[in-house]
Amino acid sequence: MAAAMVETPEDEVLMARAAWLYYIGGLNQEATAKRLNTTRARVNKLLSDARDAGLVSITINPANVGLLPVEELIRTRYGLDFCICTPALGPEKGDETDRILAPFAFRAVGAAAAAHLRRHLAEEPRAVIGTGWGRTLEQMTLQMAGVTAPGARFISLMGSLTANSAWNPFEVVQSLARSTRGEGYFLPVPFIADTPEARSVLVSQQSVQDALDLGRRATMAYISLGELREDCLLRRQGMITGDELAELRSRGAVGDTNGLFFDAAGRGVDHPLNHRTIGLGLEDLRQIPTVALVAGRAKLEAARGFLASGIVSGLIIDGDTALELAGSAPA
Length: 331
Fold this sequence. Notes:
Rossmann fold, Arc Repressor Mutant, subunit A, 10 strands, three-stranded antiparallel β-sheet, alpha/beta, 46% helix
């Protein structure tokens, strides 16, 4: 039989991944199709083409498998529906290397998240997409050109009146709505209220309740994780003080998502800031399909903690951080 022709490099990568999951990972064709977000018939064709092209013999040609074994390890360890790793950029470690590679990690994870979102919008024309904030979400919005989803609704899952930047919650939602011709909604309140009492007053407003209710109906939520370091985004934007950062660390906090601070087990820490943040809570996120975006090795500790919570159903992570996460002990 003549060898099957591979039309594009993407086809060859997909063949290798299907072969690895089926022959090495032990998944059946239906599970392999779900893992690759395609049909069982497509998987059957991929496996056939892989054999015909010589990709599969006694062993699998690993050239295009990439970090798939790492993805599977992380997915299994943390009970995720999926884990997507971008390519690793380099083995060197250190603050200077991390600083140089960080922009590439943001762009890579943002692009992978955009691809995942595009697939979801194609499957769910009336999708409700919950969003957080940050540089990774900003990069995701920049990769959505050419996607049309007029029935989709995008809703910020946190207070949207923050510093004026391309990655604040309002701009993330507006950019996605603009790109897809969908509708954008946001929480018309501050990210962090001045006091718990002020938070209660703001949350009681009908417009805020309506926005929160829409967020709880999200068909997919994309949130990023923040590290608790002096140069973290929350500190640079002046949203928390140096003293608050130190207090959070002293109480066991290892990271945040949407201003919700959690410890190494993914539990919310007992700190006043967690009683002033306005948005969907950790238990709300647990009830909807939530995808965590992790870009940069500085976020390793936060990623370990949040994954331990069992809240997220999917993870999109840069390859260098994924390798460290896979090599570390489970939280």
